[in-house]
Amino acid sequence: MPTLIGVDVGGTKCLGVVLSADHEVQATARRPTATSFDDLSDTVAAVVEELEGGAAEQSPIGVGLPGLVDRDGRLHAAPHLDDPGGHEPIAAAAALSDRLNRRVLLDNDATCATLAEWQLGAGRGLNNFVLVTLGTGIGGGVVSDGAVMRGEHGFVGEFGHMLVDPDGPACSCGNRGCWETFASGRALGDLARAAAERGGLDGVLAAVGGDLDRVGGEQLEDAARRGDAGAAAVLDEFAHWIGVGLAALTNAFDPAAFVLGGGLAGTADVLAGPLERWLREFLYSSRRRPVPEVRFAALGPMAGAMGAALLTAPGRRS
Amino acid sequence: MPTLIGVDVGGTKCLGVVLSADHEVQATARRPTATSFDDLSDTVAAVVEELEGGAAEQSPIGVGLPGLVDRDGRLHAAPHLDDPGGHEPIAAAAALSDRLNRRVLLDNDATCATLAEWQLGAGRGLNNFVLVTLGTGIGGGVVSDGAVMRGEHGFVGEFGHMLVDPDGPACSCGNRGCWETFASGRALGDLARAAAERGGLDGVLAAVGGDLDRVGGEQLEDAARRGDAGAAAVLDEFAHWIGVGLAALTNAFDPAAFVLGGGLAGTADVLAGPLERWLREFLYSSRRRPVPEVRFAALGPMAGAMGAALLTAPGRRS
Predict the structure, then answer these.
(1) Mutate to test the interface with B, among A76, A237, A240, A251 (most CBs of B within 10 A)
(2) Which of A291, B201, A106, A162 minimizes the C-alpha distance to B217?
(3) Predicted TM-score (pTM) of this structure
(4) In chain B, what residues touch A154 (CB-CB under 8 Å)?
(5) Which is nearest to B36 in space by CA: B70, B93, B94, B85?
(6) ipTM of this model?
(7) A265 near A297, Cβ under 8 Å?
(8) What are the C-alpha distances in Å from A150 to residues A71, B127, B255?
(9) Contact A149/B145, CB-based, under 8 Å?
């Protein structure tokens, strides 16, 4: 069985991996992410070349991209790229295939992460689960009845833009009060700074020399682990907003479990308790039904690239 | 091919249908809905007896019930039944099977409606669509990749309890600002009465002899069809809230279309335009993607019973 190669195009870096026949990570390569699609093709090509060490390989490449990637490998919206103007999708898989001179399989980055966590990570053995990536924004993916859901076009799982409060903060998408304005990594930083301004985070502020701009999610988590009540209160407010969305997703998808990924997956020990409580609080009829388990992603920042590699596994997709 | 029998247990009535071999409605029977599960079994039995005309039949019966019905035919939460206390599910399919002396297939009523609209109604030919029933509350179901989604337990589609505004009205479920407090048939009546109290519906009020309690959804629709601007404004506000939810569901499920059912399906001509506009407004990146079509249910109040009958079609489910 051959190795599999996958590249995850993130907001700041392009990460490529080689998976061995038994799906262990054999090699990795990184490049800073480009902001135009043409430059991005070069970046992906450089990552692949480094992974292959210059050998004249022809094996297919899996690529994960943020944004709306359709089932034909076309990119409809790409928050990380400069806006090319016009509303026509970019034939991204075809262009990458030309550039790399081989078959390229493209999918949304969170869908790739879902595939990886399902096959190799925290979702192993589950027939129904929802992955939610809590990073700068919120993305996600769904395994339903033992298959990765893709929807009509391939756009399943854009959970970050569910509206949860019409009076909420402005979102990058143009609306107000999208879930990711309350429950993403960026939102946690905003919550922390607001609490610090109200005087509720003096212990945290002291630890960063009084510099409000240095109060972010990490400082909060550290303080909460040390028993700081103000920090715990902010994390509870944050967990409350995550719970609002997880309850909506449970009402919609009825998963056996959530797998929470993205940059916040590392905060499992301080978030897990409040999160489960708020999910139960907001879920319809939660005392009369099984409440989904909340798990944290197992593959860390590798999940997207590993899932992109799995797209190319023999028999997976045409 | 034999006929199929289905019974839909609604909030006020039990409706039974016989479907012919080519899935036409051959006969119907109605009884008022009981409020305890034991009485309900008798009601379902009476409906079936009337449909079969006393013949000693043994064909299986499909039954649709509101609430959380699991894949093993157990009822976890039933908003229309008196609370039996305790949190154990009712073994509803087994109890009905004993009562009717034959196999009984049970599912959620909106899931039944989804199956019927997919096989015989407005969803025919679609591989991915979301049905939303806008009745007293909001329910729904999903067809994904050419199959009715059921989720881990069978609870897919409880869309009415997605939270859309933390400052919204109290919901029967105990939370505030669930989607159904803004976008159900009951919510439309509430919006109308609030507008009338603000003096924005004088034309509508005049038509009901000034009696605020008689201003409901139907009066609004009639007035809007006559060109009443106040009534149109209330319907636009209502469409706005439906649009908020449909956008969230599009972000989550990526359907090709919505099929709107329930009591409000008859208002297609006044609601369709504003609804499509608000869906587009709230949908992530709507200028760069196909926006789901909004269809209205074709089978009317028969959908649930017809879908319950289809549960028993040979080869459908074990």
Answers:
(1) A251
(2) B201
(3) 0.95
(4) 254
(5) B85
(6) 0.95
(7) yes
(8) 8, 11, 10
(9) yes
